[in-house]
Each structure stands twice: as C-alpha cells, then as structure tokens.
Design goal:
With 316 residues, this protein is mainly alpha-helical. It has 16 helices and five strands. Strands 3-5-4 form a three-stranded antiparallel sheet, covered by helices on one side. Helix 4 crosses helix 5 and helix 13 crosses helix 14.
C-alpha cells in the first residue's frame, strides 16, 4: 500500500474540505514499522491551529450529564445560568464547569450562540432523550463519538488521545502504572502531532479516559479500575456503532465491502471495546435486524458491507 498517497487523499476520502493549504507527505523511510496496513494513521497535525492541545481535560461524564439535563431544547442559556442549574442537579464545581461545557460542545451536543450563550443542538436534544430513555446506550454513544472523532480532522486533537489510551487498555488488559501507558501512547502521538505537542500528555490522562469508560455496560473496566476486558453481550446498537466507527476510522465510503480478516475484526472490536469472538457470533443477527448491514461470502472468505452510517435516529 502506498501510504504517502493514502495520507494525501484523507480529506477527499471523507468528503471534507482541506483544513490547510498543504497536506502531509510522509517519506516512507521516516515511517519505519510504526505504520501498519491494518490501521491508517491520519497525519493532519499542521492543518490544525498550533494552540490545539492533545491533553485530555478533566470533564467527567457525571458533570456533563448534570449540565445536559439542566438545559431545555430550543432555549439559549448563559454560562451563569448553566452553572446555577447544573449545581442544583449535581456537583459541578466552578473550576470544571467550563471544561464540561467545552466537552459537550466538542461532542456536538451543545453549541455556542453569537452572544456566547449555549443551547442544545438538534443532535443534543436527541442525546438528552436517549439519556432519559436508554441511559446505557447514551454512554455507548458518547464512547462511540469520542473514538470515531479521533479520525476527523476538524475535531479536537484530544480525541486521538482518548482513542490511543482506550486502544492500549483494550490490548493489554491491565494497568499497574499509568505512566507506562503514557510512555507507550506517546510514540504514536509524537508521530501524529510532533514531539512538542505530545509532551503535554501526563499520567492523569489515563484516569480521565477511564472515568468515561467506567460508564459502559457491560463493563469494560473491572472493579479494581486497573483491569480491562473485551465485552461480551453488548447491545446490537453498540456493535453497529463499532462497525460505523471502523468505516470512519479507515476513511471508507459507505457501501464499500470489507473482508472480515483478523485485522478487520480486531479493528471493529476495538472501536466498541467488544470481545472479538462475541462480535463474530452476533453478526448474522445484526444483518437481520439492520438492513444497512449485509454479510458477504466470497471465495476469499467472509466479509460485510455497511450501506449507510448508523445514526442516533435508529436508536431513539
């Protein structure tokens, strides 16, 4: 595979405008063995403002939910009103309020008005309804957005940090020292964003990601908070989000068939933190329930085809 060409075509693959006047062309000699054919490493670093940080902040799912529940659809509220209402519903501290509002904006749940007030987006209203009706799927959706946003150039860089930490925990199952996790994640971040940007990551990033992963059901984070396991018996919606996330990660157009080889199964399972054997076992049922998913059989083996994005409208 010609990785120089794949990287250069990234804005075209996703049908999005180029974010800068130039596009990365990485010499193959500089890539070493870090670029694997099983995963496209999208290198958009210089296309984003240099002030963008890859350090994930301390926004928590509990505080974000308190803020989300405090805002009514179609109503713009000031930052002060958000603070007062959220404090009445939860324990959102003054210092963390801004970070939690920012996270909801980054997740496209809130948007800022011209007067700097905030309001629910159309998507945010659907998320709030999902939280009230099916909270398990709400947190699965939040994880899906964090993971898949790592591969969208216009999204914040810290989503890639979330993805890489989740990937490490999924593949290694245990964390005895958060600093060891970060040292392994740093090499990927340095390759993507440069050494100076990656240096802002510290061991607290692990606990900040784990606080969101703890909300997932069935459990990915085990009771002691230091052990992790691929999840069996996830909802069918979770599995469909994982397949959608894999298409987005690879920059594939919907309707493109993919072979279910070992690398693809691992990639899909990673996006949803799903046990690989459990994913394979349930694909037939998924294709029966969701007409956008088709299973394929060829002389080369089994495959699948996702005709369209799996969206929140299918859930709510």
């Amino acid at each position: 595979m010609n990785w120089q060409r794949v990287v250069a075509q990234w804005p075209i693959l996703f049908n999005r405008p180029r974010l800068g006047s130039s596009c990365y062309y990485i010499p193959e000699s500089a890539m070493g063995n870090q670029i694997q054919s099983s995963e496209i490493r999208l290198l958009w670093g210089t296309h984003l403002p240099p002030s963008e940080k890859i350090l994930i902040d301390s926004a928590t799912p509990e505080d974000c939910v308190a803020i989300l529940l405090s805002i009514r659809g179609g109503v713009s509220v000031s930052q002060a009103d958000v603070e007062a209402k959220a404090r009445g519903r939860g324990t959102v501290a003054d210092a963390s309020l801004f970070r939690n509002v920012n996270r909801l904006v980054d997740l496209s749940i809130l948007q800022r008005t011209k007067t700097k007030d905030v309001q629910l987006t159309e998507f945010g209203t659907k998320c709030k309804n999902l939280l009230l009706d099916r909270p398990i799927l709400f947190y699965e959706l939040m994880h899906h957005i964090h993971m898949s946003s790592a591969f969208e150039p216009e999204k914040k860089r810290y989503f890639r940090t979330y993805y890489l930490i989740s990937k490490y925990l999924y593949e290694n199952h245990r964390v005895s020292n958060p600093s060891h996790v970060i040292s392994n994640v740093l090499s990927d971040l340095e390759l993507i964003f440069g050494e100076s940007q990656a240096s802002s990551i510290d061991a607290t990033s692990v606990s900040k990601v784990v606080s969101w992963l703890k909300m997932l059901e069935p459990k990915f984070v085990l009771d002691d908070g230091k052990r992790f396991q691929g999840r069996a018996n996830v909802t069918q919606e979770t599995a469909m989000m994982a397949i959608t996330g894999y298409y987005r990660q690879r920059g594939l157009e919907y309707g493109t068939p993919i072979m279910l080889d070992k690398q693809t199964v691992r990639g899909i399972s990673l996006m949803g933190l799903i046990d690989e054997s459990d994913l394979l076992k349930n694909l037939q049922q998924l294709s029966v329930r969701f007409p956008t998913l088709a299973l394929l059989g060829t002389v080369e083996g089994k495959g699948l085809l996702l005709r369209d994005m799996f969206t929140i409208d299918v859930i709510v």
